[in-house]
From TrEMBL:
<dbReference type="Pfam" id="PF03061">
    <property type="entry name" value="4HBT"/>
</dbReference>
<dbReference type="InterPro" id="IPR029069">
    <property type="entry name" value="HotDog_dom_sf"/>
</dbReference>
<feature type="domain" description="Thioesterase">
    <location>
        <begin position="13"/>
        <end position="91"/>
    </location>
</feature>
<dbReference type="InterPro" id="IPR003736">
    <property type="entry name" value="PAAI_dom"/>
</dbReference>
<feature type="transmembrane region" description="Helical">
    <location>
        <begin position="20"/>
        <end position="38"/>
    </location>
</feature>
<keyword id="KW-0812">Transmembrane</keyword>
<comment type="similarity">
    <text>Belongs to the thioesterase PaaI family.</text>
</comment>
<keyword id="KW-0378">Hydrolase</keyword>
<dbReference type="InterPro" id="IPR039298">
    <property type="entry name" value="ACOT13"/>
</dbReference>
<protein>
    <recommendedName>
        <fullName>Thioesterase domain-containing protein</fullName>
    </recommendedName>
</protein>
<keyword id="KW-1133">Transmembrane helix</keyword>
<dbReference type="InterPro" id="IPR006683">
    <property type="entry name" value="Thioestr_dom"/>
</dbReference>
<keyword id="KW-0472">Membrane</keyword>
Amino acid sequence: MSLEIASQHLNRNGTLHGGILAMMLGSAAGFAASFSFGGEVLSRVVTVTLNTQFVAAVTAGKVVATGHVSGGGRKIVHAEAEVRGEAGVLIAKASGVFKRVS
């Protein structure tokens, strides 16, 4: 997923708000977890934990979040995600646990 940063996305310090970064990280990792169960339809998952690390600040441009599965089983999946800026600079990263729900 990606976001073109606009003024409404900035915090009072003029940098991309951490809440937006957390949402992007959670969504990217959650989609990766959803795809990990196979099938043609995304599996529904809920977030059990999401640990975030904010690495660098960004004020403008486009940021891209990507996620991948790092482990798990039939109902629980461990996934990671990162957000990078246009130059490939790491902005934030996260790891989480997601549970499959029916």
